[in-house]
Amino acid sequence: MREYLCSFCGKNQDQVRKLIAGQNRVFICDQCIDLCKSIVDEEFIQAPRPEEPEPRRRSWLDRLRRIAIALPR
Fold first, then answer.
1. Looking at the chain, which terminus has fewer C-beta neighbours within 10 angstroms, N or C?
2. What is the number of H-type helices and E-type strands within the chain?
């Protein structure tokens, strides 16, 4: 059986609870995800959230959504 390692900390699949595969044989373990989440959470607590831009009227995405809703299933 092939041994998979976390691309961030180097632990193998038997040393972690969960190992998630990404593209091009990149893996991340649950422990590194928790660490990354705490770093991001800490950064967002300190920084104000940017204001969301005003939605453009009749954007291509709005038109696509209306088409998708109108299509028969």
1. C
2. 2, 2
